[in-house]
Design goal:
Chain A is mainly alpha-helical. Chain A has 16 helices and no strands. Chain B has 19 helices and 22 strands. The chains are: A mainly alpha, B alpha+beta.
């Protein structure tokens, strides 16, 4: 196993190198460059002046030269500055956008799991009951409702309809609170107020984001549990007179959860990608918008920092999944 | 349970209680967030929202008022020939030099109480003249020089001078006492680098220098000081920027307590979410970068306007038009005879521009007849106009040898015996819904006269890349290209867009903004005379004749001038703008006078004088 892990780690480096080359090349091959807009806005700029600008932005060199310059600096921890936001790309991605995205995605993932697992078990145990049919109906509604549509409906409901009908403004129309943790440290606001403001801003996007996963995982959990509940060892346990509760939670659930763990594991990198549509509808400045905007705005340093980071996560979580398979399933051995 | 829910809802609601007049604050909703503030030389980039926000916290030597006239702000008076502060010298090569002798007021201070002196002008000059500094307007700074006489007097010189040089402040002002120590460190770092091989790194260091004074963290740490009516006190990235009154600002009204004491820009980058914020009352006014024109006319906004807010449409200087490929070396363009003025006349007669404005914009976006805004001081109202007349369009085409084919599309036989159909490529930016609707409207009009408009759209990043827009000569696009030019007074005086020499061809390495290759030698001649003429009275007839030629010869097909929508809560006073207010039309005209009527703010400016209200 140890040799396997070392070998996989060794394979990761060329893989990541190739991924970064591919990302850099694709990003750089987009038509035009970030200075086109500047030139369009300034008809008086001469070609010489424009060329000097390109030089100042390091855009005059061939792609491979630019790539190796980027790589040289990146391995020393310097990911360059965001051309759009002015700040260092690492600060923009890892200090500003990533924490916000993680708050949103982890909260919604947790809520989705906390609801989907027990509801999935319930629908499996009470198969074909009224509750099962009702939950199945809502699961399909959740699965087939696009996030952006649900988001807009929720915004209308909570930001316009309820305030206009009942005269109470309960939730903000998107964005994030005008608060930083330093405000709590400096005593400007209490920790409770900080949490309350974040909670009010997160309710709608978290609910929107959680709905789709909740619906899908409820169905997976139901199917997985039904399969397990029909296994011989469950029947044996019941025939031995083991209590139904013990059969369910000790024998069936542990095996029924395995596919869900795989699904959750595979969705881990997506936690860091952000949720572009939900972030857009609620004007939530997270990773999804950062990646999209950096690609559209040709902000190469930010795009590279974010995409290579995600590539690293994908490779890392794949390795973790392979290792965990061996841990969970004794039949799998790596030599 | 009921009590719990009620308590929860009320507790949540407390955080969003209506502020505005209650605490004498103003919340401005905007769909963009600035990157850096105080980058007055546009070294990092130029963003509309940054320019607008900076109007609250920085003032210039001059202010461009609602009527597009200059007013003295940091200087004692505007330099004119009459007061002897503007000296024009004829140079041996036939060009002119202009010297602007300016005196700073003696009652001006930065927000830390430090006086504003000529050192604050000189440091900007030093920045602008530093090799490797990536300036947005290098052509201007190449002609600019500065002589400091004493702490309050200096001479700004432009050689050779151009008419546009006299629009706006000749140079911005930044706090030398704060920036110079850091600048010296930056210069020391750059001294070790090679300007040729390390140009990219040097550029990044300079951009970092300005970022370090204007980023959110710099503002939150109070790293710099401000000259405007307000100073930023807090910037939460992705959320809001809050500003408070600058006690050292010199033009505060006497009863300044009657006017807003704090201003907050709320960044809601999705325009649908911003629309929700407006309707819910979370913002008091909208910025120049906010909801789209059709959102402002949507029932969600208009149905709730009545006694809550006013919806204004302020004519902008954004000009929508059709550039036509007039390069005869491109076979498709030559076959359609697009370089023939009569073909372009047929096209413009075929398009019902007024109906398009009425149908898509409630008539609030005026039809244009040239490329100069009706609100520009050089505007010529008497240019030739081509009305909608499809019969005339058809007869012009028939005179050119076209006749309708069996499918209703015009066709003709060329001199070399080929039969060509009038299939006209029609390009614009994909994803811009408003523009794509205009495109459909125009394509349908053209179809009526037998012109088969073939839509070929792509994202803005593709169509505006030099390999596309500037390659009409190579046939990258062969027919019409619909896009917009944003102009200021200065750029309309420069009038460089449609010069023959600015047509991108192999001769100039495909540089230049005259994408379609329109050419009128007389237009070029007049433009060169006008630009060199510093006496506006003498230059005006030249600019007006240029517009007449542009309209007559249809160097491009003019469509409409866009208007900018503003939603202003009733009771907000003096949040007013015009087409060229402060250069590009950003609000407000005088930040120090924005207030709430119910707090006693006196109305000085009326938006009705500068825009149309939605009724």
């Amino acid at each position: 196993m140890f040799n396997y892990i070392v070998r996989r780690l060794g394979q990761m480096l060329p893989l990541l190198f190739m991924a970064s080359v591919a990302i850099f090349t694709l990003v750089s091959l987009q038509p035009g460059d970030p200075l086109d807009e500047l030139r369009m806005a300034n008809p008086m700029m001469t070609p010489e002046q424009f060329e000097s600008l390109r030089r100042a932005h390091g855009l005059d060199q061939p792609i491979h030269v630019r790539y190796f310059k980027w790589l040289g600096r990146a391995v020393n921890g310097d990911l360059g500055r965001s051309r759009t936001y002015g700040v260092p790309a690492a600060e923009f991605i890892f200090q500003q956008r990533l924490p916000r995205t993680l708050v949103l995605t982890i909260t919604s993932l947790t809520i989705a799991l906390l609801i989907a697992i027990p509801v999935g078990i319930f629908t499996a145990v009470r198969q074909y009951s009224a509750g099962d049919y009702t939950i199945t109906f809502f699961s399909f509604v959740g699965l087939s409702t696009p996030n952006f549509f649900l988001g807009i409906i929720l915004l209308y409901l909570f930001v316009i309809f309820i305030p206009e009908t009942f005269g109470v403004r309960a939730l903000p129309p998107g964005g994030i609170p005008d608060l930083m943790w330093s405000d709590v440290q400096l005593g400007r606001v209490t920790a409770g107020e900080y949490v309350r403001q974040w909670a009010t801003h997160l309710i709608l996007p978290v609910f929107t984001l959680a709905t789709g996963s909740m619906a899908a995982w409820t169905r997976f959990m139901r199917a997985s549990m039904l399969e397990v509940l029909n296994q011989d060892y469950v029947r044996t346990a019941r025939s031995k007179g083991v209590s139904e509760r013990k059969v369910l939670y000790k024998h069936a659930l542990r095996n029924g959860l395995i596919p869900i763990i795989t699904l959750v594991g595979l969705s881990m990198p997506a936690l860091f990608n952000g949720a572009l549509l939900t972030e857009t509808v609620f004007s939530y400045p997270g990773m999804g918008r950062a990646i999209f905007d950096s690609l559209v705005g040709k902000d190469y340093n930010v795009a590279m920092a974010a995409l290579v980071f995600i590539a690293i996560l994908v490779v890392f979580f794949n390795l973790m999944a392979d290792i965990l398979y061996a841990v969970v399933d004794p039949r799998i051995r790596y030599d | 349970m009921y009590r719990f829910v009620t308590t929860l809802v009320l507790a949540l609601a407390l955080g969003f209680a209506f502020a505005g007049p209650q605490d004498n604050s103003l919340t401005v909703g905007t769909a963009q967030e600035p990157v850096v503030l105080g980058d007055l030389l546009n070294v990092i980039g130029s963003m509309a929202i940054a320019s607008e926000v900076e109007l609250w916290m920085y003032v210039g030597l001059y202010r461009i008022n609602l009527d597009a006239n200059l007013e003295a702000e940091l200087v004692t008076e505007v330099a004119t020939v009459e007061n002897g502060r503007q000296v024009i010298t004829e140079l041996p090569d036939g060009t002119q030099r202009v010297d602007l002798n300016l005196t700073l007021r003696d009652d001006i201070f930065w927000s830390d109480g430090h006086p504003i002196t000529t050192d604050d002008v000189a440091i900007v000059y030093e920045f602008a003249k530093t090799p490797g500094m990536s300036l947005a307007g290098p052509d201007y700074w190449a002609r600019f020089s500065l002589e400091v006489i004493d702490e309050r007097n200096f001479v700004a010189t432009l050689e050779p001078a151009q008419s546009s040089d006299l629009v706006g402040s000749p140079i911005p002002v930044l706090p030398a006492h704060v920036m110079r120590p850091v600048w010296e460190d930056v210069q020391a770092r750059v001294a070790d680098l090679d300007p040729e091989t390390d140009a990219g790194q040097i550029g990044e260091i300079y951009r970092g220098f300005f970022t370090d004074f204007g980023s959110p963290s710099a503002i939150n740490e109070g790293r710099t000081v401000y000259s405007g009516a307000f100073k930023p006190v807090r910037w939460t990235p992705g959320s809001a920027l809050r500003m408070e009154r600058n006690p050292y600002y010199h033009l505060h009204p006497e009863n300044q307590d009657a006017y807003v004491q704090s201003v907050e820009y709320r960044f809601i980058t999705d325009t649908n979410a911003l629309l929700f914020a407006i309707v819910s009352g979370a913002v008091d006014v909208t910025s120049s970068v906010s909801i789209t024109f059709d959102q402002a006319l949507s029932p969600q906004i208009t149905a709730r306007a009545a006694d809550r807010y006013d919806i204004w449409f302020v004519p902008g200087s954004v000009w929508e038009h059709l550039d036509i490929n007039q390069f005869d070396n491109v076979q498709q363009s030559a076959d359609l005879m697009l370089s023939d003025i009569n073909t372009r006349r047929a096209i413009i007669h075929a398009i019902d521009r007024q109906s398009m404005s009425d149908a898509l914009f409630d008539g609030l976006q005026p039809v244009s007849h040239s490329n100069v805004s009706p609100f520009d001081p050089i505007y010529n109202p008497d240019v030739p106009q081509y009305d909608y007349d499809p019969e005339l369009a058809v007869s012009i085409l028939e005179e050119l040898g076209w006749s309708r084919g069996s499918d209703g599309v015009m066709q003709r036989t060329t001199a070399d015996g080929r039969t060509v159909r009038f299939e006209l490529e029609f390009v614009t930016t994909a994803g811009n819904a408003v523009r794509e609707r205009q495109q459909q409207f125009i394509a349908e009009d053209l179809r009526q006269v037998g012109i088969d408009a073939r839509i070929n759209n792509a994202p803005a990043s593709v169509v505006f890349s030099p390999d596309f827009i500037n390659r009409a000569y190579d046939g990258a696009w062969t027919g019409m290209f619909m896009f917009a030019w944003v102009s200021s007074q200065a750029s309309s005086l420069n009038a460089a867009g449609y010069l023959c020499r600015n047509a991108p061809t192999p001769a100039n390495d495909f540089a230049g903004q005259n994408a379609g290759g329109a050419c009128s030698p007389r237009y070029d001649e007049l433009r060169d005379q006008a630009v060199a003429e510093l006496d506006m009275a003498a230059a005006l007839p030249l600019y007006q004749e240029m517009q007449a030629i542009f309209a007559e010869e249809l160097l491009a097909i003019p469509l409409i001038f866009r208007s900018t929508p503003y939603v202003v809560t009733q009771g907000v006073t003096n949040f007013v703008t015009s087409t060229f207010n402060q250069g590009f039309g950003y609000p407000p005209a005088a930040p120090e006078l924005v207030g709430w009527a119910e707090r006693g703010a006196e109305m000085v400016f009326d938006q009705a004088d500068f825009g149309d209200q939605f009724e």
